[in-house]
Design brief:
homotetramer; alpha/beta; Aspartate Aminotransferase, domain 2; Aspartate Aminotransferase, domain 1; 2 domains; 7-stranded mixed sheet; 3-stranded antiparallel sheet; globular; pyridoxal phosphate (chains A, B, C, D); PyrdxlP-dep_Trfase (chains A, B, C, D); Low specificity L-threonine aldolase (chains A, B, C, D); lyase activity (chains A, B, C, D)
C-alpha cells in the first residue's frame, strides 16, 4: 500500500520477458539487432525521423540532452522546482561542464512564455553574462501538471525567436500523453521540442530510458558523450529490449493510463484538499500532520512534500482495488 | 561459434532469475534491501571491511575510481595499452575533470615497478608539471596476463613511497583470481590496492559492476559523483541482485574458471603461435591473413588485433565442446 | 567627468614606478624576489601568517578561492546579486568544475545569518541534492555597503556550525576597510574568513590582485590550479611589484579613502535620492530618465542600474574638485 | 650573464612607455580605444582579416585556442615534447574540459605529415576511441627549430584532409619569422594555420600575448571562454598597449632578430657540440657535467636539459658584447 514513488514499483512482466528473449549471443554495446531497431521504432511512434539512444537513467538522459543544447559558458532556463535543478546533484552542470540553470517561475512548476521571457530579459548582452542557450520543461511537471501541445508551442516560439534549444524532461512523458490523448509527436516535435528524455523506468521499466533527438544532428556528438560518461553499457541489448517491449502494443500508454486512473481516484476522494489539479499520476494534498499520521497508521506510505502537504504517487501496477482503500481513507479524514 | 568478445555472451541464468526474484515493491535508488547487503557481502568475500557501489558499466567504475584518487590537476600512471587510455573515449578525463594519463611501458600490458618509476622520475617537481597522484593497473591485463599478489605488492610499494593511490581495473578480475587460485583479498587490499573495479558483466552478468573501496573513506564523495553522473539508477535492486547472484556459491569464480579453461584449450592447440602466455580468457595468436580468413570461413568470429595477430576471447558459457572445433582448426592451420 | 566604473580610472603613479623599478633581470613566474616577498608583506598587514598568490583579475581570484573551498558536486551560498553569480560569465562554475551557486536574499546585497540559513535549510541531506560547502560574501557589497566585523563573524558562525568555508570577495576590500577604520584582520580572519580576494585594480592598480589564504593549507592545490588556468604569468615580478607598491605607506588605504570621500560628497548632495546608504565608493540614486539625461548633458557619465536608478562610482584619483560639479548638479536637480 | 630563460629578461622600454601613454581614463575590459585597434593592427600585419584577443599568458592563449578547436571528447595531436603537453600543468585539459593530447614523434620536436598520420591512423573510428579534432605545432619548436611555410603547409594538408583544426603555438613566433625572413602570413594562414598563439612576453613584452584567429568565427565563443576563465582583465588597455607597442616599427621583429643573432654567436662557438641546428634563440649543447660546472663558475646561468645536455636561451636585450663571453667560454671548453 505504497504511494511513495513510482520508482518503488516493480518492473512489468513484459519487460522481464523481453530480457529473457534477448538473452542470446549478439554484438556488444549498441551494435546488437535490438538497439539497431530503436531509431525505427521511435520514428514510427513519433511519425518523424528521430535518433534514439538508450541510457540507464533519467538523470543521464536529461544531462546528455542539455549538453547537446548548451555550451559550458551558457545557461538553460528551467523552472525553479525542476528536477534538473533540485534532484540530480548537479548532473546538468557536470555534463555541460558548468553551464548554469537560470530559474524561472510558474504555477505548478510550469513555465510560461512570460515567465521565460522575464528570465531572458534580465540577461544583458555581452561576455560578462552567461547567455541562455536552451529552455528545459518537464512534462508532466514535478507537480503532476501536463503541458498541452499549445502551451509547449508557445514556449517554443520564445525559444525559436531567441535561438534557444528546447528540451523536454519526460520522466513521466507517458503519463502526460495518456492525459492529453494526443499523438506523442503533437506535444513534442510538432510543438517545437528538439530533444526529449522519454522515461520508461517509472512506468514499469527496469533500467532503460530513451533519449530522443528530433534535431537528429545533435545525436552524433551525444554518442561520444554517452560513451565518455560510462553510459554505453556493454550488453546494450538488455536496455534496447526493455524499450521495445514497452512500445509493443502501446504498453507504455496502457501502463500510464493505469497510473493516471489511480491518481484520479485519489483526486476525487481528495476534493478541495488538492494543491494542484491532478493530470498525471501525482496527487498533492493538504493534510494536517495528524491526518498524515492517521493515514500512515492505516499502512499508507507517502512523501511529506512541504509543511501541511503530502505527495501521493500512483504506479502502473496499482489496480482500482489497490487504490480504493487510500481513496476511502482520504475521504474519511 | 564466436570468440569476438565476452560482452557478446548471454547473461547467465542465475542472474536473470535474481532479477525476477527482486521484482517486488521496494525503495528506490540504493536504499533497497539488496543494495544494502552489498557492503556486507563483499566485505565477507574480501575478508576486510569494504564499501561497495554498484554501477552499470566498467567504464564508469574505472572513471569513478580514478576521480576518487586523482585531482583535476594530477595524473594517473597506467600502461600505454590500458583500457582506460584506449577504449573509454576519455571517461577518466571526464570524471576527473581533466587529469592526465601518464603512459608507462611493460610486456603484456603489465606495469612493473621499474616502468612506473621511469614515468614518475620524468616528472619534475613544481606547478608547471602535472604531478602523479595514482597508478592504475588492469588485472587480468588487456592481453590476458595476470598480476600475481607479489607483483601487485611491488607496484604498491612504489605507490606508497610516492603517496600515490592504487587502482585495479578488474574488468576480468574473476578470470585473474581463477587463474591465481588465491583469495580475492590477496591480490587486492593485502597487496596494497585502494580501489577495485570488480567486473561482472563480461563474466555472465547483465548490467552491474561493483566498485569496491578498500580505502573506505573514499566512498563518501564517490556517492555524490555517482549520482551526479546519472549512474544512480532509480531501481537499484535490479543491479544489486545481479551482484549478489554472482557471489552466491561463488558463481563468479565458476564462470571465470569455465572461460579460462576454454582459453587453455585454445592455447594448447596454438602452441608457438601464442603472442602472450594465456592466463585468463584471452588468446592472442600469430596468424597470416590467409589463415585468419580460413578460420573465418569455418564460421569462427574474432578480432583482428594487429597485422598478423588476432584475439580470441572465451566466455563463461562455452563448454569444451563449444571450444574444441576452433582448437582443432587452429591446430590444423 | 566620469562616474561609470572604478575600472576606468588610470593606474596610480606609484604602481607604474614600481614596474620600472623591477624592470631588471630576475627569475620567471613567481620565483622572483618580489613575488617571494608577498607572503611576508601580507602576513604583516593581516597580523597573521597568510599565503598570498598574485593573479591578474578579480574574477580569477574569486574563482580560485571557490575552487579551493568547494568540490564539483557542492554549492556555494552567495547573494542573489553577487558579482560571482551575475558578472563573471560562469567563472565559478568553470573553476569548480560545475559547483552550483545557491542564491540567498538580503538588503543591499548583504547576506545575514538568517538569509544564509534559509538557503541551507532548504537542502535535504543525501546524494540527490547538491550540498553546500562554502559561503561567499562581498565586502564592500555590489551596492556599496560594508559588512562590519561583527556581521562577518555572525555569518562565519553559521559557516563553522555547518562545516562550510567562508570566502570574501574583496574587489573593493580597501574601500570597506577605509570605511570601517578597523585593522584588515578584524574584518577577515578574526571574523572567520578563510580566503580573501583582495582587490587592487579598481583602487589604482593595473593588473594584479591578491588571493589571500588565511587557511594557509588551501594554497597548495591552488598553486596548481593557478598554473593550469594560465594565470601564472611568466614575468610575475610585474604583478608582485604592483601589490607591494600598493602596500607601501598604506597607499591602498589612502586611495580607498579618497574614493570613499568622493562618494560621501555625492551622497550629501543626493540626500533622499539615495537607494542605499553610502559606505564605500558607490552611490545609487533614484533619478527620473529626464534627470539622468540632464546630468549626462552636463558631461557626467554613469551606469543605468535599473529603471529610475543610476549608479555612480568614484575613484582613487578624483579630488573634491573633480567631484564637486556632479554633487552640485545632483543637488540642483 | 644569464641564459636560463627569455622570461627572465626585462621588458623593453617601448612597452613600458606605452603603459604610461595609455594611463588615462578609458573604458574597462576590452572596450578601450587600444584594445579596439588590435583587430586592425594584426589584420594589417597578417594581410588578412583576423580576430585578435589579448590574454595575459602564453598558456592561456594556447589553451583557449585548443578549446576553440577541440570538443571535450576529442584529441589534439601534438609532439611528445610540446609545451602544451609538458609544461602547462594540464591547461589544455582544463580549458577543453578533458580533451586528450595524442603524442606524436619527430626530430627536434617537429611534427611531420608522417608522424601525424602515424598517430591518426592508430585511432579506430567509433565512439570508444577519442577522435582527433586538431593538430598543434610549436614554431619555433621547444628545441629552437623553425617550421618553414612549406612544412606547415604539408601538415595542414593532413589536417584539412581529416577535417582537423591547426593551431600554432607561437611563444617564439617572432624568432621563427625572424629566422625565416618571410611575411608572418606566409607561415600561418597561407600555410593553413587556423589559430595562432602569438607570443610577445618572451620577446620583450610584460604581460600580454595575442591570440589570433584566422578562422575568425572561432573568436566569438572564445570571448566567453576568456571572460569565464578570469582572463578578461578589467583594465585591458594596459595589455593592448603592449601589443601595439611591439608592432610599432616592427619592434617585435627587431627584438627577435637580436635574440636570434645572440644564439648564432653561441652556435658558431659551439660547433659540433650542438644537439640541434640553431634557428631561433635556443641553443642545446652537449657538455659534460664538469664542463657545465666550469661554465657556471664563470657566472653563466642555464638550464640542465638532460643528462649531458644543457639549454642556453638568448634574449632580445642581449648585445653581442653580452653574449661574447659565453661564446668564448664555450669555444674554450
Amino acid at each position: 500500500m505504497r504511494f511513495f514513488s513510482d520508482n518503488a514499483a516493480p518492473v512489468c512482466p513484459q519487460v522481464l520477458e523481453a530480457l529473457a528473449r534477448v538473452n542470446v549471443l549478439d554484438t556488444a554495446y549498441d551494435g546488437d539487432r535490438w538497439s539497431q531497431q530503436l531509431d525505427g521504432a521511435f520514428s514510427d511512434l513519433f511519425e518523424t525521423p528521430v535518433r534514439t539512444l538508450w541510457v540507464p537513467s533519467g538523470t543521464s538522459a536529461n544531462a546528455l540532452a542539455l549538453a547537446a543544447l548548451c555550451p559550458p559558458h551558457g545557461s538553460v532556463v528551467c523552472h525553479r522546482d525542476a528536477h534538473i535543478q533540485n534532484d540530480e546533484c548537479g548532473a546538468p552542470e557536470f555534463y555541460t561542464h558548468g553551464a548554469k540553470l537560470a530559474l524561472a517561475e510558474g504555477v505548478g512548476a510550469k513555465l510560461t512564455p512570460d515567465s521565460v521571457i522575464a528570465v531572458l530579459d534580465r540577461v544583458q548582452q555581452g561576455v560578462h553574462w552567461v547567455q541562455p542557450h536552451a529552455i528545459s520543461i518537464t512534462n508532466a511537471t514535478e507537480y503532476g501538471l501536463v503541458y498541452t501541445p499549445g502551451e509547449v508551442a508557445a514556449i517554443s516560439e520564445v525559444a525559436k525567436a531567441r535561438a534557444l534549444g528546447l528540451h523536454m524532461d519526460g520522466a513521466r512523458f507517458a503519463n502526460a500523453v495518456a492525459h492529453l490523448g494526443c499523438a506523442p509527436g503533437d506535444v513534442t516535435w510538432r510543438a517545437g521540442v528538439d530533444v526529449l528524455s522519454f522515461g520508461f523506468v517509472k512506468n514499469g521499466g527496469m533500467s532503460a530510458e530513451a533519449l530522443i533527438f528530433f534535431q537528429t544532428e545533435l545525436a552524433d556528438a551525444t554518442l561520444y558523450r554517452r560513451k565518455r560518461a560510462g553510459l554505453l553499457l556493454s550488453k546494450g541489448r538488455y536496455l534496447a529490449a526493455q524499450l521495445l517491449a514497452m512500445l509493443e502494443d502501446d504498453l507504455w500508454l496502457a501502463n500510464a493510463r493505469a497510473a493516471n486512473a489511480g491518481a484520479q481516484l485519489l483526486a476525487q476522494a481528495a476534493a478541495d484538499r488538492l494543491v494542484h489539479p491532478v493530470e498525471a499520476n501525482e496527487v498533492f494534498l493538504k493534510v494536517t500532520p495528524d491526518e498524515a499520521a492517521s493515514l500512515r497508521r492505516l499502512g499508507f506510505d507517502f512523501h511529506d512534500w512541504a509543511p501541511g502537504e503530502v505527495r501521493l504517487v500512483t504506479s502502473w501496477d496499482q489496480s482500482e482495488a489497490a487504490i480504493r482503500p487510500l481513496a476511502d481513507a482520504i475521504a474519511a479524514l
